[in-house]
Amino acid sequence: MNKIALITGASAGIGEACAIKLAENGFDLIIAGRREKNLEKLTQKIKDISKSEVLSVCLDVRNFTEVEKTINSLPEKWKNIDVLVNNAGLAVGVSPIEQGIVDDWDRMIDTNVKGLLYVTRCVSPLMTKRKKGLIVNITSVAGKEVYPGGNVYCGTKHAVDAITRGMRIDLLPHNIRVSSIAPGMVETEFSLVRFKGDENKADQVYEGFKPLKAEDIADTLLFIATRPDHVSINDILIMPSAQASARDVNRN
Ligand code: NDP
Ligand code: 8X3
Question: What is the pLDDT of residues 82-97, one digit of tens each?
Answer without folding.
Answer: 999 999 999 999 999 9
